[in-house]
Input
Amino acid sequence: MVLKESNGKVRKTFFGCNTAHGFHTFYDFFPDLNNARIFIVKGGPGTGKSTFIKTVAEAMLENGYSIELQFCSLDPGSLDAVVIPEIKGVVVAATGHHVFDPANPGVVDEIINLGQFWNEEGIRIHAKEILAINNESHRLFHKVYRYLGAAALIQDNIEDDYAIFLNMGKLNQATEKLTRSLLEGMEISDCVGKERHLFVSSITSEGHISHTETIANGDTRIIALRGGGVKTRSEILSRIAEEGKRRGHLVHYYHYPLNHHFIEQVMIPQSNILISANSDLLAYNGNVEIFDLNGFLDSRFHELSSDVDSVHQKFARILDDAVQSLSLTRKTHSQLEQYYISNMNFQAVDQCRNETIDKLLQHAETFYN
Output
């Protein structure tokens, strides 16, 4: 087999996110699934799923393919999926708090059951301990989501404060001007562009983490939205994205981690444009243009600045409580690994993983035929 040159690039995202509405994933790897291969890895904690995916990712990089690493929102150092866009290949874990069944079994999806490589009797003797840990993990997850739900409610108060004093007429005019400048020279297409939905930032057991820097490059035109409420910024991003789709462009929607109904960032890959409401980008080393919504606020808004700051502080404290609870949830959940690691045949897992890599490379050879 002829190997490609090792020149692959790495983009980082999250498979799903802990939101105010519970765990949410879009399970959205490609604009369409024609000729895709998705390997769904199932197995308990400590059965080697993340290492399985990491090794597949390394192998595809060594063969010159660019990849997208999708990390776990509970343990942000652990991998939940690797996507190889060039050949529409995916290896994804489907256990824990993001259990799902294949959508197209035997056609697109193939199940890899790591449970076939464990000593069931060795695990069963610890049934009492495993059930107790699982019950406690479920309880802690619900606690996390209640904290996140409370944070979202406080954020609604912040949104109201902005909405009352925001001059929507002038903001609409400025948004229209911004959209025209971004999409200048792009004609309306007779075919609406496709879309993809995912997370590039997440609320994790280690706090808020963003991988935005991996989806942009030195040549990316970046527009950062500053100020205003999350809902207003999301609406602006959605308007720009829809105009991009009307011109036939693929649009990547990166959702806001606390509330997946809102958009945090929009990427139009074909034009290499990123429009972001992520404040982290304000300090980005690249060329960032600022679209400041604060300029459309009535002067009376500043009279409420102390009240607004107080609400922001409450929001931050509750979000910190959610992160601390997530950290405890992660520690509790990780206790399960001891009962599986000692009962796994990892040599068989390695062989299964190597066979999966071979299947992906064989798929790559026939992908364009």
